[in-house]
TrEMBL record:
GO molecular function, one term: methyltransferase activity
Location of the Methyltransferase domain: 179-272
Record Gene3D superfamilies: Vaccinia Virus protein VP39 (3.40.50.150), Winged helix-like DNA-binding domain superfamily/Winged helix DNA-binding domain (1.10.10.10)
Organism: Demequina mangrovi
Keyword field contains Zinc: no
Key words of the record: Methyltransferase, Transferase
Ranges of residues in domain S-adenosylmethionine-dependent methyltransferase Rv2258c-like winged HTH: 26-98
InterPro entries, alphabetized: Methyltransf_25 (IPR041698), SAM-binding_MTase (IPR053173), SAM-dependent_MTases_sf (IPR029063), WH-like_DNA-bd_sf (IPR036388), WH_DNA-bd_sf (IPR036390), WHD_Rv2258c (IPR048711)
Name recorded for this polypeptide: Methyltransferase domain-containing protein
GO aspect biological process, one term: methylation
Keyword Transferase: yes
Tree of life domain: Bacteria
Length: 356
């Protein structure tokens, strides 16, 4: 039943109770993810509570309670084996909760929400005073959750998606093309571009030092140090010249998006390509909103808007950056037009090309 269809206090109470159950399930998923319980069940199950605790170096009593909760929530299946209660993780759940290479991987979402929940006192203060809570404040759980949930999409879908747009593919495939990955995070997008275009040189930049360090580690592990460089800098200091520049799911977080876009426009040659990937929200607010609207407003309330508000001055865009807002930023930065690229079914994202 939609909230718009709720009439009585009892119906509203049941609606809130359902939401609370979802929140409890999400935090329980976070426990299972961070303690290695899901992975142990996927790799070694079925397991009893005692066996699960032994294999993961955790407490048996807590493992028992968590398994009981997971069975009650329908996350695991329970059976009797030689008089001992054992638990299994279904194959679909194992992929969604433990396979970091799967497009269905969702455990990082629980990690992100747990990170935000841990900052609730700071969020309350920010909401009262107009202050902010930065990504640095949210810490590693949020930082690596963001990287991990986007990684399989970059590794699996970025190359074929870009290749399916001929005018973009041609630019990236130029001999010795220079490509900027602005706000590259943990480096997965830069690595994916380098693998897709073996003659290109990729320059990733990010303002977050831990992300830069992690991205450099990933580049070394991928054996791409000769073509991928990761620099600690902000988007406004982007130098050139570049054949192309990408901003993957980051423009809405930036306190000064117009300044960054202006720097990108100056850095990329007029016959090059500037691409912004951001949330595929509707052009106009919808009430009630669909899954994408609700998810992105949730991110905005807990993560993206507080991060933007932690800087001064700030555009305070928030996660729900609708196409007209992006077009306004692009026009102010000196771009002449914005087109939506024909890239679909790429998670919850939309790809825009900004034209000189």
């Amino acid at each position: 039943m939609s909230p718009h269809e709720l009439a009585t206090a009892d119906e509203w109470a049941e609606h809130v109770l359902s939401a609370a159950l979802g929140a409890m399930d999400t935090l329980a998923i976070h426990l299972g993810d961070r303690l290695g319980w899901y992975r142990a069940l996927a790799d070694q199950g079925p397991l009893s509570a005692t066996a699960l605790a032994e294999r993961t170096g955790t407490d048996t009593r807590y493992a028992h309670e968590w398994l009981a909760h997971q069975a009650a929530a329908g996350m695991v299946t329970a059976d009797e084996h030689d008089g001992v209660r054992v638990f299994s993780l279904p194959d679909g759940a194992a992929e969604a909760l433990t396979d970091g290479g799967s497009l269905a991987y969702v455990s990082p979402l629980a990690r992100m929400l747990a990170a935000a929940a841990s900052q609730m006192p700071a969020l309350l203060d920010a909401y009262r005073t107009g202050g902010g809570v930065s990504w640095a404040d949210l810490g590693d759980d949020a930082r690596w959750a963001q990287a991990d949930i986007n990684r399989p999409w970059f590794e699996t879908m970025l190359a074929p998606s870009v290749a399916a747009v001929p005018e973009l593919h041609d630019v990236l495939g130029r001999p010795d093309a220079r490509i900027a990955d602005v706000a590259c995070g943990a480096g997965w997008s830069a690595i994916a571009l380098a693998r897709a275009y073996p003659t290109a040189r990729i320059i990733g930049i990010d303002v977050d030092e831990p992300s830069v360090a992690r991205a450099r580690e990933h580049v070394r592990a991928a054996g791409l140090e000769d073509r991928v460089e990761v620099v600690h800098a902000d988007g406004e200091s982007l130098g050139g010249p570049f054949d192309a520049a990408f901003i993957f799911e980051a423009l809405h977080d930036m306190p000064q998006p117009v300044a960054v876009l202006s720097a990108v426009r100056e850095a990329v040659s007029p016959d090059g390509a500037v691409v912004v990937m951001d949330e595929a929200v509707a052009d106009e607010p919808a009430e009630p909103g669909d899954l994408v609207e609700r998810l992105m407003y949730g991110y905005s309330l807990l993560v993206c808007l507080p991060d933007s508000m932690s800087s001064t001055p700030t555009a305070a865009t928030g996660t729900v950056m609708r196409e007209p807002v992006l077009r306004g930023y692009a026009t102010e930065a000196g771009f002449t037009d914005v087109s939506v690229l024909p890239i679909e079914d790429f998670a919850f994202f939309r790809f825009y090309r900004l034209h000189h």
